[in-house]
């Protein structure tokens, strides 16, 4: 059997050096196998004939059978064209050619039957088909033509003649060359029979040249199965190995600090969801294994408290804890919150950020290495080599999607025994994505908000209604409430954005001259940022004008109105994060999304979703469907190339679930990866891990 993966694409007849270079560069097709796995993105049914009377201007490709009654040459210069008046007895449609006019007039005989294939469009209120394929009716065996594949190609490729048709031809050449035997089977006969799959070779042939849609479904199913199965198998097998390899610190007792905090300092009852999650965490840290847990909970669901309780468990068992957050503002807030909540309990909480002063910093480093500090709240600053703990027992990573993969991995090396890891995310990750990205982590969910929260009322408005917005803000501030006004800040046009923010700030200062306004953006000095944030948090200022630096974590319960300017420039999950800054106290909260009048279809949908749902999970699912998983924050940083070729995390949730179970069965029944029954599978796994450079270790 030919080794397709190592056979260079340039040796395929019809390719050669130049086209190979294009295929390499444009589609990352290097080998025959890459071509084989370059699947069509759509198919057109060439066994089906349409009637002319059915045609509209916005149909996909159609096929007609009939005759041309007459030709007409029209237009001048660039618009010179040949029009064939075509009918099948149900109506007339114009076939239009701008090139090859003379040739066509000679070739096509009036009154003879032809099969016409092309895409209808509207021109001057009439339906026509430009540059259709046209073949004499008796030369085409429609029944056996099946579905015609369409391949995505780039502009550069099309300019060099490598269009979809040319790609189809290359694939045909490849199949002829290989005459049937393409690739070795990747699943065991047992699995194939048990899960009613077709063979890999059949699936590959059918995916390129299906006869009908039933057959195509089977092929797609088989190839998706393969793709998802091997990702899941790889994750589960990695998790299995890790559990065996790493022992964890054991927090066996619930001690004095935890109990005193619980009974003396906790100002409210935990929600049931919080209780459940704390229990799950306690079970993990009291086993002999290192905890690797992902905690998902919508904004405002009370994750900080869960983090604190987990850190107190560490303290009671003689360990230190570290809470890692993505921004300095957030680090300071968390540090203050923790200190406030702990009151007089003997727990030392310290803050370490990039802007900690030298002297302070030295003291903190010392406190960490001699064990005097119990809890460190920090940013990236904690990752530096010289930050050493005496006995780090647990690391909690808040708002995790902001941290890169490598950074998380670094925390592992702060001890001989790796600390327990709790990753908290407020951007709920859809289940399918979580299973793929964090498939080796246990997942806890806080699916309940603290009692007494009123749902935030969200409204979408156009710019021309700003006067109304201002008068609404006036009323709210008069009631003693505070307001956020957020402007976008995107790296690419930072200058312009900052100007928008400054202009907005000045304008607001005029409109709200009786009140005090804070301003906050990432370009400010850390000390100034703190001061402004502090002024707002303490109620000294009524309005905070800001960029998205307040997106994560900031907690000012008295702020109840969020105005988002140029809301069209934010993604769904970002909008939801921002909205999460309000609705944290008991008062009714509002979120006003202000946009331009002209909106794309996509933006309109985003606004619709935001105004109709407050549920982060619903929003995350919608986001996944709108944008596709490749764009979701976090996937780029995952360290894994997630270019799924055929499966789709938004659409194939059920299959993913199913396949994960199959993979789990395999790992459980052959944990040593050595049973001859599964040899094919383990060998294939090794091969694709090597090829794709999958290293799960790096992502948790
Ligand atoms: P997030 O999950 O977004 O990090 P926080 O931990 O910041 O949420 O909590 C949001 C607010 O809810 C805080 O002001 C916190 O004190 C409060 N809170 C947390 N848990 C409860 C609870 N069980 N009952 C009432 N309020 C709570
Ligand atoms: Mg938080």
Structural descriptors:
single chain, 700 residues, alpha/beta, DNA polymerase, domain 1, OB fold (Dihydrolipoamide Acetyltransferase, E2P), 5 domains, 7-stranded mixed β-sheet, 22 strands, binds adenosine-5'-diphosphate, binds magnesium ion
Write the layout of secondary structure elements.
Layout: H1 16-27, H2 32-36, E1 42-45, E2 62-74, E3 81-87, E4 92-97, H3 101-107, E5 114-118, E6 120-123, E7 126-130, E8 133-136, H4 142-145, E9 147-150, H5 155-159, H6 164-178, H7 189-194, H8 200-208, H9 213-245, H10 256-265, H11 272-285, E10 292-297, H12 303-316, E11 320-324, H13 328-342, E12 349-352, H14 358-370, E13 375-378, E14 392-397, H15 405-410, E15 420-425, H16 431-437, E16 442-446, E17 457-462, H17 466-478, E18 482-486, H18 494-511, E19 517-520, H19 526-537, E20 543-546, E21 559-564, H20 572-579, E22 590-595, H21 601-612, H22 616-627, H23 653-669, H24 679-692
Parallel strand pairs: 4-7, 10-15, 10-16, 11-13, 11-14, 12-13, 14-15, 17-22, 18-20, 18-21, 19-20, 21-22
Antiparallel strand pairs: 1-9, 2-3, 2-5, 3-4, 5-8, 6-7
Magnesium ion is lined by residues 303-304, 398, 426, 553.
Protein architecture, described:
It is a single chain. The protein is α/β, with parallel strands linked by helices and 700 residues long. The chain is built from 24 helices and 22 strands. The strands form four sheets. A seven-stranded mixed beta sheet has the order 6-7-4-3-2-5-8, with no helix packed on it. Helix 20 links the parallel strand 21 (559-564) and strand 22 (590-595). It starts with 15 loop residues before the first helix and ends in an 8-residue tail after the last helix.
């Amino acid at each position: 059997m030919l080794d397709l993966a190592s056979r260079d694409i340039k040796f395929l007849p019809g390719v050669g050096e130049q086209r190979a270079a294009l295929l390499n560069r444009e589609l990352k097709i290097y080998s025959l196998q890459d071509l084989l796995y370059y699947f069509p993105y759509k198919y057109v049914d060439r066994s089906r004939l349409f009637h002319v009377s059915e045609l509209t201007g916005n149909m996909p490709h159609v096929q007609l059978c009939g005759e041309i009654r007459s030709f007409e040459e029209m237009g001048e210069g660039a618009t010179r064209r040949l029009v064939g008046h075509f009918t099948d007895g149900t109506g007339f449609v114009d076939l239009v050619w701008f090139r090859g006019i003379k040739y066509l007039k000679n070739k096509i005989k009036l009154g003879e039957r032809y099969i016409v294939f092309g895409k209808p469009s509207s021109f001057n209120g009439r339906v026509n088909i430009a540059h259709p394929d046209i073949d004499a009716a008796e030369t085409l065996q429609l029944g056996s033509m099946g579905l015609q594949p369409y391949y995505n190609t780039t502009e550069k490729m099309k300019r060099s003649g490598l269009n979809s048709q040319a790609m189809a031809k290359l694939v045909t050449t490849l199949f002829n060359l290989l005459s049937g035997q393409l690739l070795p089977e990747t699943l065991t006969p047992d699995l194939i029979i048990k899960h009613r799959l077709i063979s890999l070779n059949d699936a590959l042939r059918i995916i390129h040249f299906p006869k009908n849609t039933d057959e195509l479904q089977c092929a797609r199913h088989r190839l998706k199965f393969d793709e998802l199965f091997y990702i899941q198998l790889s994750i589960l097998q990695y998790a299995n190995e890790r559990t065996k390899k790493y022992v964890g610190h054991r927090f066996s007792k619930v001690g004095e600090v935890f109990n005193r905090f619980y009974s003396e300092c906790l100002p409210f009852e935990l929600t049931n969801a919080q209780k459940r999650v704390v229990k799950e965490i306690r079970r993990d840290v009291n086993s002999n294994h290192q905890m690797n847990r992902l905690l998902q909970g919508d904004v405002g669901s009370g994750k900080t408290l869960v983090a604190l309780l987990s850190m107190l468990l560490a303290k009671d068992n003689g360990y230190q804890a570290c809470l890692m957050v993505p921004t300095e503002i957030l680090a300071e807030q968390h540090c203050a919150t923790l200190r406030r909540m702990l009151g007089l309990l003997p727990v030392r909480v310290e803050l370490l950020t990039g802007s900690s002063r030298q002297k302070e910093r030295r003291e903190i480093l010392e406190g960490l290495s001699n064990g005097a500090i119990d809890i460190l709240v920090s940013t990236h600053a904690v990752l530096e080599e010289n930050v050493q703990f005496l006995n780090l027992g647990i690391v909690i990573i808040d708002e995790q999607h902001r941290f890169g993969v490598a950074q998380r991995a670094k925390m592992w090396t702060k001890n001989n025994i790796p600390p327990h890891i709790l990753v908290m995310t407020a951007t709920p990750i859809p289940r399918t994505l979580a299973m793929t990205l964090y498939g080796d982590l246990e997942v806890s969910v806080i699916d309940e908000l603290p009692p007494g929260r009123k749902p935030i009322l969200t409204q979408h408005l156009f710019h021309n209604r700003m006067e109304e917005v201002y008068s609404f803000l006036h009323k709210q501030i008069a009631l003693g409430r505070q307001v956020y006004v957020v402007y976008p800040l995107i790296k690419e046009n930072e200058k312009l954005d900052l100007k928008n923010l400054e202009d907005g700030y000045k304008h607001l200062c005029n409109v709200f001259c009786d009140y005090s306004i804070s301003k906050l953006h990432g370009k400010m000095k850390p000390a100034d940022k703190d001061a402004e944030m502090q002024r707002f948090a303490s109620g000294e200022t009524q309005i905070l004008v800001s960029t998205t630096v307040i997106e994560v974590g900031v907690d000012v319960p008295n702020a109840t109105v969020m105005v988002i300017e140029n809301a069209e420039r934010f993604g769904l999950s970002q909008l939801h994060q921002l909205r999460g800054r309000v609705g944290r106290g008991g008062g009714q909260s509002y979120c006003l999304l202000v946009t331009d009048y002209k909106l794309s279809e996509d933006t309109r949908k985003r606004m619709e979703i935001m105004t109709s749902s407050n549920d982060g999970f619903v929003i995350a699912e919608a986001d996944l469907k709108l944008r596709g998983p490749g764009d979701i924050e976090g996937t780029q940083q995952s360290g894994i190339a997630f270019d799924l070729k055929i499966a789709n995390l938004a659409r194939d949730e059920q299959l993913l679930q199913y396949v994960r179970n199959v993979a789990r069965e395999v790992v459980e029944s052959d944990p040593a990866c050595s049973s001859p029954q599964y040899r094919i599978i383990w060998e294939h796994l090794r091969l694709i891990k090597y090829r794709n450079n999958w290293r799960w270790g790096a992502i948790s």
